[in-house]
Amino acid sequence: MTLASYENVESALRFISPDFEEREEWVKIGMAVKDGLNGEGFDLFDSWSKGSDSYQSHDAKDTWRSIKAGGGVTVGTLFYLAGENGWKPDTTAEPETEQQRLKREAERKARTQKEARAKTTKSKQAIAKVEKLLNTAVQASENHPYLMNKGVGVNYTFSFSIQQVSLCLHSPNYISAIQT
Questions:
Q1: C-beta separation of 12 from 82 below 8 A
Q2: Do residues 134 and 160 lie in contact, with contact meaning Cβ atoms separated by under 8 Å?
Q3: For 148-175, b where at least 16 C-beta lie within 10 A, e where not — what string?
Q4: Nearest CA among 31, 26, 13 for reference residue 70
Q5: Distance CA 132, CA 171 (A)
Q6: CA 141, CA 149: separation in Å to the nearest integer?
Q7: What is the pTM of this model?
Q8: What is the pLDDT of residues 145-169, one digit of tens each?
């Protein structure tokens, strides 16, 4: 068993309160759990988070999904903070071997690459959707009920490229920008 076992992560979490003044500190714990368990461990993070008065299920899920591999926070952060509160690791834990370290690093690298591919795919899908919307869009008339209600004229500017999509609607009284 290595130090970053499921059992040690679970044990360490018991020594850390999920009630942080700053949300970023709570997120760091999620990052540390995800790092220590090679992308797994949402159940631990969520269960631990439920101990907070400000717990929101959707926040825990969204935060977990947003945590990317190699985010700079490791399981060491979790163990350090727990140790500050008296936590001691399981004494049967053995030091990580070079082979285990290389395997963990390879898994982290593969996870990072997979996340990057997924992000690229989502970006391409978003661009395709915007292209379709822009190609089918028609200019609204000046007396369109929505534009009249909002006090917006029909003047508009489109800026479009494969790397970034932006749409700027403007009139003398109103500016709105949409970017993806």
A1: yes
A2: yes
A3: eeeebbeeeeeeeeeeebebebeeeeee
A4: 31
A5: 25
A6: 13
A7: 0.59
A8: 877 787 766 665 444 444 454 445 5
